[in-house]
Amino acid sequence: MAKASANYVCAACSNATTKWAGRCEACGAWNTISEEAPLSKAGPAKKSLGGRGRAVPLTDLSSTEPAPPRVASGLSELDRVLGGGLVPSSAILVGGDPGIGKSTLLLQGAAMFARAGLKVIYASGEEASAQVRMRAQRLGLADAPVKLAAETNLRDILTTLEQERPDLVIIDSIQTMWSDNVESAPGSVSQVRAAAHELTSFAKRSGMSVILVGHVTKDGQIAGPRVVEHMVDTVLYFEGERGHQFRILRAVKNRFGPADEIGVFEMTGAGLAEVTNPSALFLSERGQPSPGSVVFAGIEGTRPVLCELQALVAPSPHSQPRRTVVGWDGGRLAMILAVLEARCGIPFAGLDVYLNVAGGMKISEPAADLAVAAALLSAREDVALPPETVVFGEISLSGALRPVSQTENRLKEAQKLGFTSAIAPSGGKAGAATGMKLQQMGDLTAFVGDLFGAG
Ligand code: TYD
Ligand code: MG
After folding, report:
1. Residues in contact with ligand 1 (CB, 6 Å cut-off)
2. CA gap 373, 424 in Å, rounded
3. Which of 59, 264, 354, 356 supports an S-S bond with 278, CB 3.0-4.6 Å?
4. Relative to the CA of 245, which ligand 1 atom is closest?
5. Whole-prediction pTM value?
6. Which ligand is closest in space to the CA of residue 271?
């Protein structure tokens, strides 16, 4: 009698609710909620209800089985983001906007892993084998021993995998796969979840690694990669601005390595090229020191990355001045503006504020606070910062500057790129970066007084 409670799921963020709504309460997206078939319909579990389960063999934590070795592809930026290579029987999700270069990256990865000795299958649900082959030729990878399959039926793919027993399979994309156990259309939340679940559990059982490609979707008809994030070991996002050639592969979750690690690539006519020194790349377009431009010494994952912040502050013609941010968090900008106003008496009312991280980079570290403040002040006062200077530090609401991690690494990277001085919060240790002139300050008022002679 009791009907299973209907389950509605948002395709963008996978938030579940008991009733339908036009707008998702969790992520605010419109028209993304649809009904999901209850999982019990699909599962084979019905028969065994009430019966006894099978005892599972238990092992100790101190088991002496050696960990299986990781396999490095030789594409060092990819290996770095994976935590040092591919872990056997791991499940990896690679998400990103359509057209950003996911298929290109994974075809290159597949070829490199195949050359490193793995048996690799590339299953494409989006392109015909001929198209994939053409791309491989263009990338100079046609000789790599990768097996192709153009297929979207999950049952057929699993049967093939069972026979072939590859070491790595790439599913491009998970949204095109459909399982005949599930009634809804390909791309729906239930289909994507069922396909991801079957593939990852097959991977765990058989010792095969699987890479799932997921498109980030804007409309609600197709489930986004977030609905499978919890099922996989590693979640990578491939990001970048369409107008820029830089692409950043970012680990947001990794059971086998540091999260927040990034790999930097450049999209060229012959595929993705690795960028081993991203700082040099992000700063390469820098000209003379100019007001509003500040170099931030940041840390991305385990690696220091220098990038340029640009601010523009101009009188606003609008009653409500604009605050526009590219590559940084808008809420954090509002906070810095409020601290500058409340603690240093520098108002931004009536002024439009634009902030841009050059090169298409996205920064999430609070250590960029001080660099942002420096860029804003420099733009507002129309005074350029001393040349060859990097800035970093976190700003607290009281206006105090808080030390950030890895001061030494930030300074060493800056020194390597020809910078001679740094502005940082008191408390950090310069360590071996001895050649750098380090100006340490305890609060924002001292910083404003020192650099702009005003308070
Ligand atoms: P693709 O890998 O198909 O994107 P996704 O799988 O994420 O949808 O990449 C598509 C874009 O990459 C396309 O706009 C063309 C560009 N591209 C190059 O610039 N150079 C190349 O060598 C290749 C293969 C693609
Ligand atoms: Mg693609």
Report:
1. 96, 98-104, 135, 138-139, 267, 269-271
2. 12
3. 264
4. 19
5. 0.81
6. 1
